[in-house]
Amino acid sequence: MFMTLKATNENLPPNVIRQLAKELKNLDESPPEGINVIINDDDFTTIFADIEGPAGTPYENGVFRMKLLLSRDFPQSPPKGFFLTKIFHPNIATSGEICVNTLKKDWNPDLGLRHVLLVVRCLLIEPFPESALNEQAGKMLLENYEEYARHARLYTGIHALKPKNKSKTGVISESTTALNVDKSCTTSSENTPSVPTAVSTSTTTRAFGTNLQDQNATVSDPAVGASAAQKKDAPLAAKVPVDKKKVDARKKSLKRL
Length: 257
Prior knowledge:
Blueprint: H1 2-10, H2 14-29, E1 35-38, E2 46-52, E3 63-69, E4 80-83, H3 113-125, H4 135-143, H5 145-159, H6 168-185, H7 201-208, H8 211-216, H9 222-256
Antiparallel strand pairs: 1-2, 2-3, 3-4
């Protein structure tokens, strides 16, 4: 596997490899807002990035994985962009292909990867329905924005990764979604990435132990209800011996009188 990746990297001219290494290092040390680039030092021809849905858009609270495929004559030819995370957007085909002028007629060899990634994220803020690859999304955006936004939010809630947070539930949710995305990445050599499939509850439970079961437990569970009842009654049981001692002490005092 290592030799294959290395051979792929060596298909690029040495000057291009040096330029890409410099750009990727810069992206790693100073990432653009809302974008995290995943670097593979052995293969610069396929670049993955996780893009946070911009605030105020239907993609907010979602993280979308995409990839850029570089051709052998890069940077003379633009990279090809694909979303691996399923998304409802006028300029992103159901296959994941991205339609943006920067990657087509407006391409300039002097444009860097940072510029390309920022343009893609801006596309989530301001779609262009006039050049739609997803006709349904484009038509809906022009005719009924609320319906378009509802569809986009639905897709975001189902398919997008969740932003990192400190709660256990968030970590598990993010990890299970990441497994789905990785499954689609295994077919990323094709230009039509497959739709991530759902991970069953049993698989998630095996992967993360019993914590998930603990989090999903509710009072309706008889075992949980019984445990809760015991805990609730415990303080009352503890008070009984104390009250008995008080009664005995009072009896002794009365006998002395």
